[in-house]
Specification:
The protein is mainly alpha-helical and 122 residues long. It is 54% helix and 10% strand.
Length: 122
């Protein structure tokens, strides 16, 4: 498991948000859990580009940051469900605003992102 060698900079709100939400799939995971996709297999289907291992790591980090909870049911095979904590629910309006901004600026954002990609990626 990865061990951090340098302590994170936690001097302001943006540093704290970056520390908690840094990860390619975390914002999507929070959004989809809020939308009712609570099982790991459902989340995997919603984010097919992510590997199961990466999703598990990021779900664990979200759990460690107290944004989601994990419930394991004592059945065979084990059943796992995730849900937002009250603290995690406070992020949903922020994620919604970011998503709306992205939708509003979709063409421009897509254009500047595609400009930076190497030709073999297109």
């Amino acid at each position: 498991m990865y061990e951090r060698k340098v302590l994170p900079n936690l001097n302001c709100g943006l540093d704290l948000i970056g520390e908690v939400l840094y990860g390619k799939w975390k914002i999507r995971l929070l959004w989809f859990i809020n939308e009712g996709y609570t099982r790991p297999s459902e989340l995997q289907r919603k984010i097919p580009d992510a590997t199961r291992r990466v999703l598990n790591i990021q779900l664990k980090e979200l759990e460690d940051h107290e944004l989601i909870t994990k419930k394991i049911y004592p059945v065979v095979p084990p059943k796992v469900e995730y849900s937002l904590t009250e603290f995690g629910q406070t992020l949903i309006p922020v994620i919604s605003v970011l998503g709306n901004w992205g939708d509003k600026n979709e063409d421009r954002l897509r254009s500047v992102i595609l400009k930076r990609l190497k030709p073999e990626c297109l």
